[in-house]
């Protein structure tokens, strides 16, 4: 969750195209984003112009990534995230708002990343690819806000501090500690001299063992256990 997480490779040539749904109530912006993602080699499965349509079309098509505006008619962005439940689709919020409360509401509801609409076409494309891989992507300045909120939450009685951590391998434990500090998969791979895909596999294994659904929940859990501290 560092400020530079969008500066990562878009993917390997032999990888399957990333599938997306784009939800925004401004037709010109929605169509422009969908066109840019399609031109970048992604598969745009559907678009939506309100909250209920975003939920229904995402559940029907199960894309890799839902690119979501926060201020949709019918349902706000965080309500859309919550309505998707445990669906494997990852959510990248693309909003005109950079307000702290909007960011935190979206992330707490399950969004993987958050960009403001002033981001460039290249940044948006890179962010969607990163989100599809499981990296948490944030507009510069917002990553620290989210980690700070998770650390604040870890001091509150929302997570059972006595909850046991199932047996993890040594490598899974290493990866979990680095995830808790906010590092991206690429940065973790570089630090441990392994590929970002191997890091992603370790994270998926750890999520299964901890019975968590996404990286945001994993970061929150790890911080609550104190794994983001150097002593950990």
From TrEMBL:
Keyword terms of this UniProt record: DNA-binding, Phosphoprotein
Boundaries of every HTH luxR-type domain copy: 161-226
UniProt keyword Phosphoprotein present: yes
PROSITE patterns the record matches: HTH_LUXR_1, HTH_LUXR_2, RESPONSE_REGULATORY
Record-linked Pfam families: GerE, Response_reg
SUPFAM superfamilies: C-terminal effector domain of the bipartite response regulators, CheY-like
Record-linked CDD domains: LuxR_C_like, REC_NarL-like
All copies of domain Response regulatory, residue ranges: 19-132
Entry's Gene Ontology BP terms: phosphorelay signal transduction system; regulation of DNA-templated transcription
GO MF annotation: an example: DNA binding
Modification 4-aspartylphosphate, positions: 69
Stated name of the protein: DNA-binding response regulator
Organism: Pedococcus bigeumensis
């Amino acid at each position: 969750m560092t400020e530079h997480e969008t500066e990562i490779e878009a993917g390997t040539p032999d990888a399957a195209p990333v599938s997306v749904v784009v939800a925004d109530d401004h037709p010109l912006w929605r169509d422009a984003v969908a066109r840019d993602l399609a031109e970048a080699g992604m598969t745009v499965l559907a678009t939506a112009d309100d909250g209920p349509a975003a939920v229904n079309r995402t559940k029907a098509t199960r894309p890799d990534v839902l690119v979501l505006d926060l201020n949709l008619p019918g349902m706000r962005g965080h309500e859309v995230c919550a309505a998707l439940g445990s669906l494997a689709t990852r959510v990248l919020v693309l909003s005109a708002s950079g307000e702290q409360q909007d960011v935190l509401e979206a992330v707490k509801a399950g969004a993987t990343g958050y960009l403001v609409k002033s981001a460039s076409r290249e940044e948006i494309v890179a962010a969607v690819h990163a989100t599809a891989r499981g990296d948490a992507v944030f507009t510069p300045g917002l990553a620290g806000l989210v980690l700070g909120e998770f650390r604040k939450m870890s001091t509150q009685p929302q997570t059972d501090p006595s909850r046991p951590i199932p047996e993890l391998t040594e490598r899974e434990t290493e990866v979990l500690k680095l995830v808790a500090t906010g590092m991206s998969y690429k940065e973790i791979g570089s630090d441990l001299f392994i590929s970002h895909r191997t890091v992603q596999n370790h994270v998926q294994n750890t999520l299964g063992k901890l019975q968590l659904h996404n990286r945001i929940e994993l970061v929150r859990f790890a911080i609550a256990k104190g794994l983001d501290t150097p002593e950990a």
